[in-house]
Specification:
This protein has 497 residues and is α/β, with parallel strands linked by helices. Helix content is 35%, strand content 20%. The structure holds ligand BES, manganese (II) ion (MN) and zinc ion. The site of manganese (II) ion has 4 residues, from loops.
């Protein structure tokens, strides 16, 4: 599987610092004042730390970034990393420091002198997330990742605080692996199998096949998969960490989107291997909740389909009846995500009876036109819930921007022959897609729709992810569950961790 560093929290032991191999890292604040470990390293290197941290360039370093002294004299280590970080850093700065370490140390074994630093778990999170690499299909996988050891004044306390944080990192990694996986490997069947493996963590997993979905009347979802050799599936994952009515997380899981008969252009079509990004995030959150044994009741539901053109594929002009009973005129087979989601949303409300619902989907190219790659589009029917989501995303550093819903947009979905069309035209394309979904959400269910087309996977490296799948949303949704749905809710702040 993926390369993930093993991370340990150990007592401080400065004696072997001269002989330790691999990479060593230490933190220094803006004032250049050296802590105990840094002073020891300064002596070993005959003042190299003092020189580096009194240089003019040091003061200009953003917090969380640093410099490397290669083959430092007086030490056996290959490299000594000095990271600018205050003793009580903010969440973002702590993660940035960890991400810097991941870039600077690569695969090398790493000793991090963290002494009395606060937020060590967040540094570790940054290290884990930025150190991720998807190498499953490389014959030469490169060197195995060296372990990272954080030397802390109170290692047991730090380890206990880090455990739930690193559980979320594993959730993010699970999402990224799924999203990065090519579509010939991650078929609908393989996807379901990987979700069934969550049973080992105590998640109840149910897989509905095509006959079962036909009996339920999920004809909109089924229409999308009709042209594919891979069978459509609905996977329901339940984490019962409390007895309250659950939060439902619904994900679009189009394992590959050719557009169907309304075929996409060839250039860039390979990117549509990430069209299951919404389902990937749902899976990652479920894994995180299970690993940290969250005291919340959450049900993840993902519609797994492949959108292919073939002799059995749905065609433009087809009319299908959704599980809700409303009929849909399919005018563009490439607007398939909403056809999948409408039936899964309805199933969720009828069967799961959720207290609230969040859906995620790489739904529209129009979302990228509107917000680029920096923000997911956020839609909601409930201002309080939405406000809490937006603040949580802000805390986690995951871009999210609220977009409008209104009757006039809904009117754009009117069909002359059915209850609605599956497209609303080019103007406001992300909004009309959201309006389509809203027709399948009951008024009394607080609901958030996240169009993650722009943020699920990136062509460039970002702060916490190398290029490719980001896992956007796992951190925010995990924190939202903690703040709003756990039995003993935390205050809605970035408490510790
Ligand atoms: N999966 C695509 C949206 C998408 C585009 C995601 C680019 C990520 C990157 C979706 O199924 C789609 O094809 N949407 C169409 C809708 C249109 C036909 C109304 C689109 O955005 O062009
Ligand atoms: Mn499409
Ligand atoms: Zn799609």
């Amino acid at each position: 599987m993926t390369r993930l560093r093993s991370i340990a929290f150990d007592p401080v032991d400065l004696d072997p610092l001269a002989t330790v191999a691999g990479h060593v890292a230490v933190f220094v604040g803006a004032d250049g004042k050296l802590g105990r470990a840094a002073r020891r390293l300064d002596r070993l290197t005959r003042g190299a730390l003092t020189r580096a941290t009194t240089a003019e360039s040091w003061a200009k370093k953003p917090e969380g970034e640093g410099v490397t002294l290669a083959w430092p004299a007086g030490m056996a280590a290959e490299a000594l990393h000095l990271i600018r970080l205050e003793r009580r850093p903010g969440l973002t700065e702590a993660r940035r420091a960890g991400a810097s370490l991941a870039r600077m140390a690569g695969a090398k074994p790493l000793v991090v002198l963290a002494e009395n630093l606060a937020r060590v778990p967040q540094v570790a999170l940054g290290l884990a997330l930025r150190g991720y690499a998807f190498t499953d299909h490389k014959s030469e996988r490169g060197e195995p990742l060296g372990a990272a050891s954080f030397q802390c004044a109170k290692p047991e306390e730090v380890a206990a605080a880090a455990a739930p944080v690193l559980a979320v990192a594993e959730g993010v990694t699970f999402t990224r692996d799924l999203v990065n996986e090519p579509a010939n490997v991650l078929t609908t069947t393989e996807f379901a199998t990987r979700l069934e493996a969550l049973r080992d963590l105590g998640v109840e997993v149910e897989v509905l096949d095509e006959p079962q979905m036909r009996d339920l009347g999920m004809n909109a979802l089924l229409a999308v998969g009709e042209g594919s050799a891979s069978p459509s599936k609905l996977v329901v994952m339940r984490w019962r960490g409390a007895e309250d009515a659950p939060l439902a997380l619904v994900g679009k899981g189009v394992v590959f989107d050719t557009g169907g008969i309304s075929l996409k252009p060839g250039a860039g079509m390979e990117d549509m291997t990430m069209d299951m990004g919404g389902a990937g995030v749902v899976a990652g959150v479920m894994k995180a909740l299970a690993l940290r044994k969250a005291a919340a009741h959450v049900v993840g539901l993902v519609g797994l389909v492949e959108n292919m053109p073939s002799g059995t594929a749905m065609r433009p002009g087809d009319v299908v009846r959704s599980m809700k009973g409303d009929t849909i005129e399919i005018l563009n087979t490439d607007a398939e995500g909403r056809l999948v989601l409408c039936d899964v949303l309805w199933y969720a409300q009828e069967v799961i009876k959720p207290a609230a619902m969040v859906d995620l989907a790489t739904l529209t190219g129009a979302c990228i036109v509107a917000l680029g790659y920096e923000n997911a589009a956020v839609y909601s029917n409930e201002d309080t819930f939405c406000g809490q989501f937006l603040r949580t995303a802000q805390t986690e550093g995951e871009g999210a921007w609220r977009m409008p819903l209104a009757q006039a947009y809904d009117d754009m979905l009117k069909s002359p022959i059915a209850d609605m069309k599956n497209i609303g035209g080019r103007p406001g394309g992300s909004i009309t897609a959201a309006q389509f979904l809203k027709r399948f959400v009951k008024d009394d269910v607080p609901w958030i729709h996240l169009d993650i087309a722009g943020v699920a996977s990136l062509k460039t490296d970002s702060l916490l992810a190398p290029k490719g799948a980001t896992g956007w949303g796992v951190l925010t949704l995990d924190r939202l569950v903690r703040a709003r749905f756990e039995t003993r809710p935390e205050a809605e702040t970035d408490a510790e961790g």
